[in-house]
Specification:
Strand order of the largest sheet: 2-1-10-9-8-6
Structural class: mainly beta
Number of strands: 10
Distance between the termini: 57 Å
Number of domains: 1
């Protein structure tokens, strides 16, 4: 009986919340206007982004961006950038089955070796669809070019998890996201 009452209260609160939500009759003033009704994840496009690396000998590469992945963001802290490398699909799910994602927080110039200790200002994470919980052992990232519109670099390193993962021959040439602070 108590479970039924809790479910009823939750459902009533949800209906009240949805009914009270403001309705939009058009675009929000000052908001970017989309040229399609597709969600951002479906708007993967070729926009000067490219990356390639081998993961345990298997090549992973892509030439698409959606302004959230395979694009560079400037951090609030000067001299620090973030980006995620993901083999986007032109249509369908943002992360195709089996596609790994590498996320970087690194200096915006020079060569940096990042080791998997907690408390580092910089880091690299590996995400896979198997949720193996990979931990960074070490990664070397070199930013070889950083212009107003693109960041170019290389990377290689290793992760430990349910098995050891070796990342080799990593290269990237990524545009700055239009959502990145200038």
């Amino acid at each position: 009986m108590a479970t039924t009452y809790i479910r009823f209260c939750f459902a009533a609160a949800l209906v009240t919340f949805v009914a009270a939500a403001p309705r939009s009759s058009g675009p929000v003033p000052g908001a970017p206007v989309s040229q399609s009704n597709q969600s951002p994840k479906a708007q993967a496009r070729r926009d000067g982004a490219r990356f390639s690396f081998t993961m345990n000998g298997k090549t992973v590469s892509n030439t698409l961006t959606n302004d959230l992945v395979n694009a560079v963001f400037r951090e609030k802290k000067p001299g620090v950038i973030k980006f995620t490398l993901l083999a986007l699909a032109e249509k369908g799910p943002m992360q195709p089955p089996g596609a790994p994602a590498l996320s970087f927080t690194v200096p915006d110039h020079g060569t940096t070796r990042i080791e998997g200790r907690l408390g580092n200002a910089y880091g690299v994470t590996l995400s896979t669809n198997d949720d193996a919980g990979y931990l960074l052992e070490a990664m070397t990232v070199a930013i070889t070019e950083n212009t107003a519109s693109h960041v170019v670099g290389t990377f290689s390193g290793t992760f430990n998890g349910s098995s050891k993962v070796t990342i080799a021959n990593g290269t990237f040439d990524l545009p700055y996201s239009t959502q990145s602070a200038k």
